[in-house]
UniProtKB/TrEMBL annotation:
<keyword id="KW-0520">NAD</keyword>
<dbReference type="InterPro" id="IPR005886">
    <property type="entry name" value="UDP_G4E"/>
</dbReference>
<keyword id="KW-0119">Carbohydrate metabolism</keyword>
<comment type="similarity">
    <text>Belongs to the NAD(P)-dependent epimerase/dehydratase family.</text>
</comment>
<dbReference type="InterPro" id="IPR001509">
    <property type="entry name" value="Epimerase_deHydtase"/>
</dbReference>
<dbReference type="InterPro" id="IPR036291">
    <property type="entry name" value="NAD(P)-bd_dom_sf"/>
</dbReference>
<comment type="pathway">
    <text>Carbohydrate metabolism; galactose metabolism.</text>
</comment>
<feature type="domain" description="NAD-dependent epimerase/dehydratase">
    <location>
        <begin position="3"/>
        <end position="250"/>
    </location>
</feature>
<protein>
    <recommendedName>
        <fullName>UDP-glucose 4-epimerase</fullName>
        <ecNumber>5.1.3.2</ecNumber>
    </recommendedName>
</protein>
<keyword id="KW-0413">Isomerase</keyword>
<dbReference type="Pfam" id="PF01370">
    <property type="entry name" value="Epimerase"/>
</dbReference>
<comment type="subunit">
    <text>Homodimer.</text>
</comment>
<dbReference type="GO" id="GO:0003978">
    <property type="term" value="F:UDP-glucose 4-epimerase activity"/>
</dbReference>
<dbReference type="GO" id="GO:0033499">
    <property type="term" value="P:galactose catabolic process via UDP-galactose, Leloir pathway"/>
</dbReference>
Length: 327
């Protein structure tokens, strides 16, 4: 299939692009390179473009005879979204609407959407199933939820079949450890701890140790990037017949911030300074997925559920690329 990968130069998008190529698809990356890395694009055609550019989207879809779209291009920082809600709704919602309009106008009707556990807000039950209340507590989560609702209504017109995939904490490096996380600036836990282990930052700060968890630090469900991408391939295959697919993507096993720090220490063999700071606003104590729907309906299985394996792949990437992609 010819697949337009919006945001295909970013962390998840570039891993997805590489996996699509490995599986015989023809990915076309569409990315404005504001956050992504051109050197992370593997085995794909590349169009430098912005999702706000309707004409270029239509031209690209026609030029490459696109059959389906995977959409990874979004802002992802919760704190930034609180400071700039309009920027988040514009990029994450308005631009997704623009992309969908271009798809409808060119007759492309298969769409895989990167959603997030942030649509649940502070869930009342753990592990999280897809049908609990969606009550996002920040503009990031709400902008993603708004796109989900738009997709749901659009699918009912018969013009779009879609999969909304709600990611828990994507991490690790794919393609044999060569495609890893390099966010600018970095705010994600595992790369930050690795920077501390590499001596690139003085310490790692734990955001709060007074949560109601076994060691007082927040618990998250860390999912290896390759496992995450695999679910997209499976979902894409279903979109010929299914109008609406919604799945949580996580391992269902939670690790605390302290446990992640200990794992990085073990994998790296390095010691480093750990300090405890205040809670970060908007962090729920525990987020873990019940992903049984994806397992049952997609036949999805995870190959790398162990945190140590995930951290090893990330460690390998950061050691090989101490300054990230450098572009
Ligand atoms: O320097 C740091 C950075 C993070 N944390 C904690 O580590 C955990 C993980 O944080 P982070 O890596 O920032 O991920 P999340 O805030 O859990 O959010 C991720 O997971 C969400 C889905 O759950 C996605 O929507 C987001 O895009 C993605 O960043 C949280 O408890 C943070 O409070 C620290 O203690 N210190």
């Amino acid at each position: 299939m010819n697949i337009l990968v919006c945001g295909g130069a970013g962390y998840i998008g570039s891993n997805m692009t590489a996996m699509l190529a490995r599986h015989g698809h023809n990915p076309v990356v569409y990315d404005n390179l504001s956050k992504g890395h051109k050197s992370a694009i593997r085995n794909a055609q590349f169009v430098r473009g912005d999702l706000a550019d309707y004409d270029l989207l239509v031209e690209t879809i026609k030029k490459y005879s696109i059959d389906a779209v995977m959409h990874f291009a979004a802002f992802i920082e919760v704190g930034e979204s609180v400071a700039d809600p309009l920027g988040y709704y514009y990029n994450n919602f308005c631009n997704a609407r623009n992309l969908l309009q271009a798809m409808v106008d060119t007759g492309v009707n298969k769409f895989v959407f990167s959603s997030t556990a942030a649509v649940y807000g502070e869930p009342e039950t753990i592990p999280i199933t897809e049908d609990i209340a969606k009550q996002p507590i920040n503009p990031y989560g709400d902008s993603k939820r708004a796109v989900e609702l738009m997709l749901s209504f659009l699918s009912k017109t018969g013009k779009m079949n879609y999969a909304a995939l709600r990611y828990f904490n994507a991490c690790g490096a794919g393609e044999d450890g060569t495609l890893g996380e390099d966010h600018q600036p970095e705010s994600h836990l595992i790369p930050l701890i690795i920077q501390a282990a590499m001596g690139k930052r003085e310490d790692i700060k734990i955001f709060g140790n007074d949560y109601p968890t076994h060691d007082g630090t927040c618990i998250r469900d860390y999912i290896h990037i390759e496992d995450l991408c695999k679910a997209h391939l499976l979902a894409l295959d279903k979109l010929d017949d299914e109008a609406e697919l919604i799945f949580n993507l996580g391992n269902g096993k939670g690790y605390s911030v302290l446990e992640v720090i200990e794992t990085v220490k073990k994998v790296s063999g390095k010691d480093f300074t750990v300090i405890t700071g205040d809670r970060r606003p908007g962090d729920p104590p525990v987020l873990t997925a019940d992903a049984s729907r994806a397992r049952q309906q997609l036949g999805w299985t995870t190959d790398f559920p162990e945190l140590e394996i995930i951290v090893e792949s990330a460690w390998k990437f950061h050691n090989a690329n101490p300054d990230g992609y450098g572009d």
